[in-house]
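User: I'm designing a mutation panel for FAD-binding oxidoreductase and want to avoid disrupting the core. Could you give me a predicted structure to guide residue selection? Please restate the sequence first so the numbering is unambiguous.

Assistant: Good idea. Sequence first, for numbering, then the predicted structure tokens:
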Amino acid sequence: MITILGGGVAGASLARALALRGRRDVVVVDHCPFATGSTGKALGGFRVQHGSTLNISLSLASRPYFAARADRIEFAPVGYLYLADTAAAGPELAARSELQTAHGLPIQHPDPRTLLPEIVADDLFGTNYCAWDGVYLPAKVLACLREEATAAGARFHYETEASREDLAAEEVVICAGSWSRQVGASLGVDLGVTPLERGVFQVGPFDWLKPQTPVLLEAGSGYHCRERQGRLLVIGPGDPNAWEHHRQWLERRLPPAAVERPEDHWTGLYEMTKDHHPLVGSTEREGVWAMCGFSGHGVMHSPAVAESLAAMLVGDTPPLDLTPLSPLRTQPLLDGTQL
């Protein structure tokens, strides 16, 4: 038996991948109700515009899953529009563009007002845009993965604590998101995962905001936003519960959206590691594996990571080499595009 501890997108992706490789003894256990963890609170952005070969490869390998289920998960390739909002961000975006283009990404450098006329762009030092990027509904991705994994033979148990039988399985995989450090400690392994609260503010609806609006992301400040059902979802650095600094950013960059009060607000937890890359592979304890610490990229990269980790678990050659993501790595991974 293979026990997966955690039924978010990471755990459901792995259950699906294992079941499709013929394992009919996969059990997913989660102490939370379905879709109430970090997955259900995610912004829902997908991008291939990363700053390392590894992360670009993971996105390219995951993207077919999203594209093939576009209607079911509301995946729309609206693109990510990166804004160089500081003098230092201009050369940085140019360097990213060179790397990304070398990997075959169709990077463009449009005037942002051609994509969103309401944006203030006179102070920008450049832009990067890729139409392969997009948005989706995270809860629907999780529902889709769970449905497909169940159809292939995996079993899910939500609002359930792992039993002794579960923990005595041939292989146990920790996919517990922000709780992975505690879960790992209970199994005698050290996983450097720390929760980080992030807040999402919802404003609108706005008549001028169209479904094809790209995700906006300031490369310098880190503020970004996306359209969802005529509303704007906004996330940024600093206090995740403080609207005022988000409002001030909108007032500077997208004035029509700088309303006095948001329509809605919620927070979720990023599962952060020291180098903002996930921990994937075998741990220091035989039979205990990890697939956690995605640092905000869990929904986006789980399909690809799960395919390769499932191959490793059943003794096959993985489609992607996940060795750099080993939980036992001693050298930090670097990617300047990590948020």
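For picking mutation sites, this is relevant: The chain has two domains: 2-42+138-193+273-325, 80-130+196-272. The domain at 2-42+138-193+273-325 is CATH 3.50.50.60 (FAD/NAD(P)-binding domain).
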